[in-house]
Amino acid sequence: MTTPSNGVLPAAHESNKTAPWPAYVTASVAWHAGAGVFAIAAPASWPWAVAAVAANHAALTAGGLWPRSRWLGSNWTRLPAHAAARREIAITIDDGPDPAVTPAVLDLLDAHAAKATFFCIGAEARAHPALCREIVRRGHSVQNHSDRHSRRFSLLGPKGMAHEIAAAQASLADITGEAPRFFRAPAGLRNPFLAPLLQRLDLQLVSWTRRGFDTVRRDPRDVLARLVRGLTGGDILLAHDGNAARAVDGGAVVLAVLPELLARARSVGLVAVTLPAAAQRECGDAAAPDAAQPASMSSAG
Ligand SMILES: [Zn+2]
Question: pTM of the full predicted structure?
């Protein structure tokens, strides 16, 4: 079994290692302490201290409900600058594996010589382990999308959240032989407990540049238009094999979208790669132990 630290670590990992807690959360703790001191020093002003703490909680909650925000810690919304410079994009496919959809997705990717990243649900992977292994066998990447994809994920405390992530991590590593290095929260929703847990498990949070809303939108043209708007190197696109909406012909929307999406990407010189491949500083150096080096993520948007 490979470890999450083989090859080149995503640069955001490096910055995580030097920051024990996201800066915004650290500032929030200080904010609480300051409000407490203020209330003690000037008891008559306690309503202002309460209001200050309430405002801080509202801001933290808003950060968790905005999937692409970085208020609660490192969050990839685009690939690293070196991947963008290589004209790479990442197609990420969530909520599987699904025996009714995933095999056809794999065939479409093969037909276009494209690689993708599958953010799998731990429970679904345990239900369909052979399919999960087939994803990896065909050159794609399996990453962590929580164990049960709970709608309440962003309401969980640190213990419940740790279980959701660690259980999926253990199952996916056991089934595929490769420990995931990336995590995506269900629906992209989270809370301040998530960042320290991901840091402990050496996982990089990934959201997306654009999503097609293909769990609810039934018109493939609509989903495709959302995904290709301003398509360029470094984009992270979100589609679904699990929980996929069905088009009028009864097929999963992603199956109608992928051929045109992949053709358009290729027509403008973009290459669809996995997230671990995009994280590498140099092409083909993933297994080289001496390849590990810090990288700048400053330009990732
Ligand atoms: Zn999902």
Answer: 0.80
Distance (Å, whole) CA 64 – CA 71: 8
Q: What's the pLDDT at 5?
A: 39
Q: Which of 13, 94, 98, 147 is catalytic?
A: 94
Identify whether the C-beta of residue 11 lies closer than 8 Å to the C-beta of residue 297: yes
Question: What pLDDT, on a 0 to 100 scale, did the predictor assign at position 12?
Answer: 41
Q: How far apart are CA 257 and CA 270, in angstroms?
A: 17
Distance in angstroms (rounded) separating the CA atoms of residues 32 and 126: 43
Active site residue 222: no
262: three-class secondary structure by DSSP: helix
25 CA from centroid of ligand 1 (Å): 25
Per-residue model confidence (pLDDT) at position 57: 73
User: What is the token pair recorded at 148?
Assistant: 């049960």
- What digits encode the pLDDT tens for the residues 146-183? 999 999 999 999 999 999 999 999 999 999 999 999 99
Using alpha carbons only, give the angle 93, 220, 129 rounded to the nearest 5 degrees.
Answer: 25
Neighbours of 14 (CB within 10 A): 17
